Amino acid sequence: MKRGKAAKGSTLVIVDGDDTLWETTHLYRNAKDAISHLIESAGLEGAEWRTAQEAINVALTERMRLSSRQFPESCVRAYLRMCRNRQITPDPQLQATILEEARRVFTTPVRIAPATVRALRELGKSAKIVLLTKGDLAVQVQRLEEAGLSDLLDSIYIIRSEKSKESFEALLHAYGARAEDSWSIGNSLPSDIAPAAAAGLQCIHLAGSATWAYENRPALVTSSARIRSVGSFSDAVSLVLRERELQSSSPRTGNEGLA
Ligand SMILES: [Mg+2]
Questions:
Q1: How many Å from the N-terminal Cα to the C-terminal Cα in the chain?
Q2: What is the CB neighbour count within 10 angstroms for residue 114?
Q3: What pLDDT score was predicted for residue 52?
Q4: Ligand 1 centroid vs 211 CA: distance in angstroms?
Q5: Cα 104 to averaged position of ligand 1 atoms, centre (Å)
Q6: What superfamily would CATH give domain 2-23+110-255?
Q7: Which of 65, 80, 120, 215 is most deeply buried (CB count within 10 A of its CB)?
Q8: What is the rounded (10 degree) CA torsion for 45, 51, 53, 55?
Q9: Phi, psi of 130 (to 5 degrees)
Q10: HEC string of 147-168?
Q11: How remote is the CA of residue 6 from the centroid of ligand 1, in Å?
Q12: According to the model, what pLDDT value does residue 209 have?
């Protein structure tokens, strides 16, 4: 999905959605806590269910590509695997309740920090802001509406495939932006930082944002692009604005030490 409005400025800032602009980690944590409790009430090991669920969820990613059915399916499959290993018959009622708890992740409104909204508004005065997020189209659209961010973004791209060097290059091309004047901000090293760095963008990693096992897969950052780490989205925006100010107040040849 793509939506655009009038472009402005020469700086392009590409931002991630989940756990960058809005928080989702607590939704998954709450669902897993609730299901783990249900599993234990049935006399099974909650910790064993968690380990199985995480492994199954990562394994399903390639085929289900973060569809909103993936997480609920991984939760149910983990329970069924435990039953199979113990040679016990699954309880259909428990199975239905697990599904219901897991689906809450996609029906509970996401939270957005007021500081994030203020930072986007400030950044939007002098830069083009593009959201590049992967995941289920309907879920991501719903989250955007809940977060009320649409008017603060120049364009919105929701993709089902992995973000790649080519995804970032395509956006640079679409905006006629130079890689060295462009930024990527996100919480995932393999998804938001490594491919953007490979495309030559400047990168800011939200290192403090918890994520799930799949986003903790090894990230090979092959480029010499400078990657900064900050604790929040508003800190990332302050950094972009500060660097732009430094660049515009110093001669072009003096910029090499900053990039
Ligand atoms: Mg993310």
A1: 32
A2: 8
A3: 98
A4: 7
A5: 19
A6: HAD superfamily/HAD-like (3.40.50.1000)
A7: 120
A8: -150
A9: -120, 130
A10: HCCHHHCCEEEEECCCCCHHHH
A11: 26
A12: 62
Query: 7 by DSSP, 3-state: which?
Result: coil
Measured from the Cβ of residue 113, the count of other Cβ atoms closer than 10 Å reads: 14
**Cα 177 to middle of ligand 1, angstroms:** 23
Helix then strand count (H, E) for the chain reads 9, 7
Q: What is the pTM of this model?
A: 0.84
CA distance 171 to 164: 11
- Please identify every residue whose CB atom is under 5 Å from ligand 1, which is an ion: 16, 18-19, 187
pLDDT value at residue 256: 40
Domain ranges within the chain, ordered by starting residue: 2-23+110-255, 25-106
Residues in the chain where the model's pLDDT stays below 70: 1-9, 209-225, 250-259
pLDDT of residue 28: 94
C-beta separation of 154 from 7 below 8 A: yes
Count CA atoms closer than 13 A to 159's CA, side-chain side: 17
